[in-house]
Structure formats: C-alpha cells, structure tokens
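Morning - heme C inputs below, output right after.
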Amino acid sequence: MKRIHTFMLSAFIAVPAFGQEAAPSDTVPDSGPALTNTTIMILILLAFMILMLFVARALLKAAQAIEHAALNPQKPASAEPARMLEYAEWVALKKAKKAPPIWNKVLGLKPIEEESSLLLEENYDGITELNNPTPAWFMGLFYATIVFAVVYLLSYHVFDLGKLQEEEYRTEMAKAKSDHETFLANAANAVDETTVTESHEADVIATGQNLFAANCAPCHGDKGQGVVGPNLTDDYWIHGGKINDIFKTIKYGVADKGMISWESKLTPKQIASVANFILSLKGTNPAGAKAPQGDKEG
Ligand code: HEC
C-alpha cells in the first residue's frame, strides 16, 4: 500500500514537470495562453493515470481482503447456549463497556487492551508487528493536498486564471505608488492660511514666479513694485506680511479695494507658491517702486 501511495505522489510530481518542458516549444506566439494540444494531452493522461491508480488501489484492497480471510478462518460460534444475564453481571458488563474517548476515534487509536487484536500474523524470530493503519482523516488530508496541488497547478500555470505572486507584488507596488502620489498631491493641496509654511525651495519659488507673472503682474508690476496694487517688495503691509497673512489676502482677496479672490482660480498649493514668491521679493527695491502703504513689519 505504501508503495502505491509513493507512486501516486511521484506521478503527480512528474506529470507537471513534463508539462512544463513541453510547453515552450509548443506555444504559438500570437495565440496567447489558449488550450494547446499538448495541454489537452497532458490533461487526458493525468485523468487516465488517476483512474489507473484508483483501480490499482481497489484491486490491492480486494487481494488483501481475500488474503486476510484465508489466514483468519472464522472461529465456530460458541457451543454454549445463550442464557439470561444476572442483574449484577449485566451492570458489571455495562461498566466495563465504557465509551472510548473521542480522541481515540478521531486519531483512529485502539485502547491498549485491544492491542493484541492488531497483531499481524507475521512473526520474524519473535518480533511481531501491529497493524496500525493511518487514520482516515490523515489519509483524507493527504489526498486533499494532492487534489489541491493539481487544481493549483492547472489554474495558475496552465490556464493562467489567477495572478502569480510576482505579478501580484508588482500590481500592489504600482497601486501603492499611485496612491502615494495622489496622497502627496492632496496633502500639498490640503494647505490653508492656518497651516501654510514659509518655503525657500527653488521649484516652489519658480512656480510662484510663473503664476505671479501670469496673474498678478498687471496690478502689482512684473517685479512686484506696485501699479494699481501696492508694492509687494517693501516692509509695509496693509493686510499683514507673514506667510499666513499673504496667503489669506490672495485666497479671499480684498473685494472692495480691487484685489480679487483667487480661491476659485488657483489651487491652495499654487496660492502657497505665489505667496512664497512674494516673500522672496522682500528688499529687492525694483525701479519705480510704489510708495509704501500700510504698516511697517519685520
Ligand atoms: C486687478 C488688480 C489686481 C490683481 C490682478 C492682483 N492684485 Fe493683489 N492687490 C490689488 C490691490 C488693489 C490691492 C490692495 C488692496 C487694499 O488696498 O486693501 C492688492 C493687495 C494685494 C496684497 C496685499 C498687500 C498688502 O500690503 O497687504 C497681496 C499679497 C496681493 N495683492 C497679492 C496678489 C497676488 C499674488 C496676485 C496674483 C495671484 C494679485 N495680488 C493680483 C490688486 C490686484
């Protein structure tokens, strides 16, 4: 029996190996992972082998049963006629017949008193052997792993139904990367007048400069020297010269004085950049600078 099991196992290991060897030489370049003749052949072969193995197993079991019957002829029934039990005898019998612990059932164990019934006929110079078959649950598990292996192999390697680990890893990493990017973009845009911070980073200032030239220069001058709007390069501010104040002025504007609200036209990130650009203009003293307005700060 053991030999049959080993054979079954090795057959299952060998068949996929053939399949893998045969696959590359037989794949048609443009037809994708379709059912090739080789695959069908392997499947039929596999099914046939499984059938053959079960037939072999059944035959072996039958042979064993016949052998067992031949070696253990039925003892003739006791000649003693049946008699009524005394009550005390019956109680003693009941007590002796304790139900075996559930573990014994699950593990297929026999109580030690019944061990002698497991003794095999063979006797090698006084060494005897117990017939302790592997419990059914274990065999069930064993066959289940084989079935699982076949299903797994077919679905992942033959029919490409699922993603292999490496592909799964790649998709997850790609998703994490794009999630990270959206998160960063959102985080940069989550800024408002209470959280905005001063930045001297070159790309922030450069973005701010471009935005300023495109949107603000007509009123504040190309160098921030002031036209209709006030000079943004001096130390005097009408609405405050800290980064938070400047951000707030740009975001909400000063409607009745001609400064537009930029909240709907620029993203929070853009407002932060242009505010930082304005801060970088401090003390540049451009030609034709407008006279200071507001209160001196800093
Ligand atoms: C239509 C003309 C106009 C445009 C365009 C304009 N501003 Fe102004 N801005 C003004 C005026 C006018 C004021 C003065 C408001 C006041 O007197 O309260 C002002 C004030 C400001 C102040 C406050 C200055 C202070 O002293 O407190 C800042 C900062 C500012 N603007 C930034 C910008 C930025 C950045 C842009 C471009 C995104 C811009 N402005 C576009 C007209 C403009």
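Note: The CA atoms of residues 64 and 70 lie 10 Å apart.

O.
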